[in-house]
Amino acid sequence: MGRLQPKVVHTEESRWFDFPLARAFEHTAHRRLLSVLSGWAAGALFLTTAFAGLTGTLETPLAIAGTAAFIAFASVPVLVNRFDALGAATIVLLVTGIAIVLVPAYYQGGLNSIYILWFIVIPLLSGLMLGPKVALASGILGAIAMTVLYTLASVGELPKTDKDPDELFSWLNIVLGIGFSSATGFVASRSLSTSSKKLLEATLSEKAQSEAVEESSAHQRAIVDAALDAIIEMDSSGQIVEFNPAAVKTFGYEREDVLGKPLSDQLVPEELRDDHTAGISRYLQSGQSRILGRKLTTEAMHADGSRIPVELVVQPINVHETHRFTAYLRDMTEQNETQQKLLEQSRQLDRSRRLESVGRLAGGISHDFNNLLTAINGYAELLLETEDLDPQTQDYIEQIIYAGDQAAQLTRQLLMMSRNEHIEGQVIDPNELIDKLMNMLERVLPESIELHRDLQPDTGRIETDPGQLEQVIINLVLNARDAMPNGGHLFVKSCSEDVDEARADVLDGIEPGEYVRIEVSDSGTGIASEIADQIFDPFFTTKPFGEGTGMGLATAYGTVRRSGGALWADNETESGSTFIALLPRTESTEQPPVSETTEIHPGNGETLLVIEDQASVRSLITQVLRGHGYRVIEAADGNEAISLFESAAETVEMVITDVIMPGISGPEAVKRLRELQPEIAVVFMSGYTDVRLDHRISREPGVAFLHKPIRLSQLCAVIRKQLDGPPEKRHPTP
After folding, report:
1. Poorest-confidence range of 170-184, 432-446, 664-678?
2. Full-model pTM
3. How far apart are CA 107 and CA 113, in angstroms?
4. What DSSP string describes 339-356?
C-alpha cells in the first residue's frame, strides 16, 4: 500500500525560491489558495476596468495598469490547473500584486504611500511566498528603488503630489523601514519554512504510522481469516474478542453471536470450566501457568452441545498492561477417525500376517506330513484287510486310522484358516442353509437360550463350500452359547449390504460390491478388550485346558476370507458380542453338488505308471494296485518315468503321479508323456495345497486330483472311473 505525501512545487534545493507556503499547504490546498487569490484579484480588476470603460478613463495609466494586471491574474488559474506550475503562478501573483498596488499608491499618496506599502507588505509577502532569499532581495531592490525615486523627485523628474515629505528624512526612514521589513520577512520566512517542514514531517510520519497500522491490521486480519485452524482470542475478563471463520466452521457459532460473550460458557465443557477460570486468575495474579505455550489435547463444546476432540496451543499477549489470550485450535475428529481406521487396518494386516505365517508353516510341512499320513493310514487299512484279526488288534488299527484322520483334519484346518486351500465352491442360498442349520441347532442348544431368526428375503446367492460355511455358523453359534452359561438370547440374521471402496479398505481389503451379511449375536458376557485382537488367532482360546483347541474362530475366519469375504466381531462387554460375516453375492445359477463314489472295482490287467518320490508311499500304492488286478510300473521321479515309459513294451493307460518332485515336476512329466500318448489318463496327488496349482490342474480334461493323505479305497475308485471314461475326454482334441 503506497503512502500519501503532499506534493510541493519546489524544494530547499531551489537556488533562489523556497516557496514556504508550499510546505505549509498540501498540494491541493496550495492550488486552491492560488486559484482563489488570483480569482478574487482578477474579479476586482475586471470591475475596475469595466468602470473605467463606462466613465471614459480606460486610457489612463491606472486603467492600463489594471487591464494588464487583470490579464496576469487571469493567467494564474491556467498555470495552476492546466500546467500544475504552482511556482510560476506564485511569482506572477506576487509580482502583479506588487505592481498593481505600487502605482496607485504613488498617485494617491506619493512616496510615503509607497514607503508604507513596501515597509509593511512587499518584503513580508516576498518572504512568505518566495522564501528568505527573495525577502532580502526585495529589501535591497526596494532601497535602491526608493533611492532612485527620491533622486528623481528631488530633481523634479517625477510628478509632484501634495503629500511629498522632506526628501532626506523620508529617504532615510524608507531605507531603514525596508531593512527592518526585509529582516522581518527573512526571519518569518525561515521560521515558517522550518515550522512547515517539521509539521509536514510530523504529518507524514503520523500518516505513515497510521497506514502501517492499517496495513498490519489488514494483513493480520487476512491471516486470521485464511487460517485453516480455529483462532479464538479472549481478554482478561474471559470475553471472546476474536473468532475467525475456521472457528465458525469448527464450533457452529456465527462470529457476531459469540463476540463479547464468556468463552467458558460457549466452548468449555462444564466439568472443565472451574479449572479454566482458576487458570486465568492464577496467571493474572502471579504470571504462572501450566498450559500456556504448550500443546494440549482436550475436548471442546460444539454449538449443538456435542463434544469435539481438539488439539490447542494458548499464547498470552500482553500490551500496555492489557492481557489477552489467543488460542489456536485444531479439530481432531477427522484425524482421530483416520487414525482409528489405520489402526483397524493395521490390526487386520497383523492378523492376516499371523495367519499367513501359520499358513506358510502348515504349507511347508504339509507335503511331508501328508505323505507320512498316507503311508500310516494306508498300511493300517491294509492291516484291517488281513484275515483272522483278533478284536483287540483290529481296535488298535482302527485307532491308528482315526488318529491319522484327526491329524489330516488338523492340517486341513491350518491350511483353511491361512487361505492356502482352494474352495470348490457351489452356488447356494444362504437363507436356506441357515434355516436348515437352525432347525438342527435348536435341538442341541439348552432351553435357557432362546434362538431368534431374522432372515431377510432375497438376500441373494453366494458361491462357497456349503459344508465349510455350515461349520463357520456352527462355530459362531457354539461360541455364543458358551458366552451365555446362564442363558440368554441368541440372534442369527441375514441381509444384503453394499460395500463401497472406503469400507472395503477397512475390511481387510475386500473388493467393493454387493455382499450377503450374516450376523450371529448373543446377550452374553462379551469379549474382554485386551483379547479382542487375538480371538481369530490359531490355538488361542479362553476356555479351560482340554475344553477347546482355539481353532474354531481361526478356521471360520480362513473360510470366509477364502470365499472373498470378511469376518469380524463387534464387541460390547456389557451386552454381548456380534460376529459379522460378509460374503460376496453372485449372479451365477445354482449348481448341484458333485457326488463321488468310493466303490472299488478291480482292475483288468491295465498298466499304470506310478511316479512318487517318497518310497514308502510309492511302495504302498504299488502294492495296493497290484493287489487289485493292475500292472504297475514304478518311477521315483519324472526323468525315470519318461525313460520307463519310452521303453515299456506294453501300452501305459494311466499315470498316477505326485505334483511336486525333485527335478521334473509331475505336471511337466505328464506334458511330455502326453506328447507320446495324448489319450493317457492322469491322476495327480499332492501333499501341498497351492490354490492356483490345484485349481488349474483339476480343471484340465481327463485329469483327477487327490489331496494327501488319500484313502486307498478313494484312490482305487478314482482310477477305475478315469479308466472307464471315453478316451476323447482324457485330452483335448489336437
Report:
1. 170-184
2. 0.44
3. 9
4. HHHHHHHHHHHHHHHHHH
**How does pLDDT run across 592-601, given as a tens digit for each residue?**
444 444 456 6
Q: Contact 429/469 with Cβ under 8 angstroms?
A: no
Which grid cell sits at 53?
470603460
496 three-state secondary structure: strand
Give the C-alpha separation, 373 to 378, whole Å: 8
DSSP 79: H
Q: Please provide the DSSP assignment of 433-457 as one string.
A: HHHHHHHHHHHHS-TTEEEEEEE-T
Q: Are 409 and 370 spatial neighbours (Cβ–Cβ below 8 Å)?
A: no
Which helix or strand (DSSP H or E) is residue 461 part of? strand 461-464
What are the two backbone dihedrals, phi and then psi, of residue 490, each rounded to the nearest 5 degrees? Answer: -120, 125
The secondary structure of the chain in percent helix, strand, coil, rounded to multiples of 5, reads 55, 15, 30
Provide the sign of the torsion angle of the four alpha carbons 703, 709, 712, 713, taken in this order. Answer: negative
- For residue 574, count other CB atoms closer than 10 A to its CB: 6
553-570 pLDDT, tens digit per residue, is 777 887 788 788 888 887
- What 8-state DSSP symbol labels residue 141? H
C-alpha span between 520 and 529 (Å, rounded):
19
Amino acid letter, residue 511: E
Query: Contacts for 399-406 with beta carbons within 8 Å, 24 or more apart?
Result: 400/376, 401/377, 404/373, 404/376, 404/377, 404/380, 404/709, 405/377
Largest CA distance in the chain: 183
C-alpha cell at 211: 497506514
Cell of 360: 506358510
Cβ atoms of 111 and 164 within 8 Å: the answer is yes
Cell numbers describing residue 693: 496349482
Query: Looking at this protein, which amino acid is placed at residue 497?
Result: E
Helix (H, G, I), strand (E, B) or coil at 420: coil
